[in-house]
Design brief:
Elements lengths: L1 H19 L3 E3 L2 H17 L1 H11 L1 H6 L8 H16 L3 E3 L2 H22 L1
Helix pairs in contact: 1-2, 1-6, 2-5, 3-5, 5-6
């Protein structure tokens, strides 16, 4: 049930972002659902590799900030996954990294709210 809710939330966030964030394009609701499924599959199968890579690359920064930078790792990893999703789904596009990071922030905030409500 939670997986279905997350897929719907991602689709809604993608549609809202395409209306409000310059650089994000989603053709229609079906494209948003396909993009959310592709995003979920990428997150499951290669998301951990991306998070591990970012963690290792930013280890000195994490040490200097006493671990606070670890809070940004999933935000950055989601932006990378969104750019990869845009490359795989023809009817979904993220033009630049600024749009990807903004969309990733909205996605994380929406999932946080959904998890609070679902408890």
């Amino acid at each position: 049930m939670m997986l279905l809710v997350q897929l719907v939330v991602v689709a809604v966030v993608l549609m809202l972002a395409s209306q409000s964030i310059p650089g994000v394009y989603v053709r229609d609701w079906m494209a948003a659902f396909v993009a959310s499924i592709v995003f979920a599959l990428l997150a499951v199968f290669i998301g951990w590799v991306i998070k591990l890579g970012i963690t290792l690359l930013t280890l000195p920064l994490t040490i200097v900030t006493l671990g606070l930078f670890l809070l940004l790792i999933s935000w950055i990893a989601n932006a990378v996954l969104l750019k990869m999703t845009a490359g795989l789904v023809e009817s979904f596009a993220v033009r630049d990294w600024r749009a990807a990071l903004t969309l990733s922030f909205l996605y994380s905030a929406a999932l946080f709210v959904v998890e609070l409500v679902m408890r």
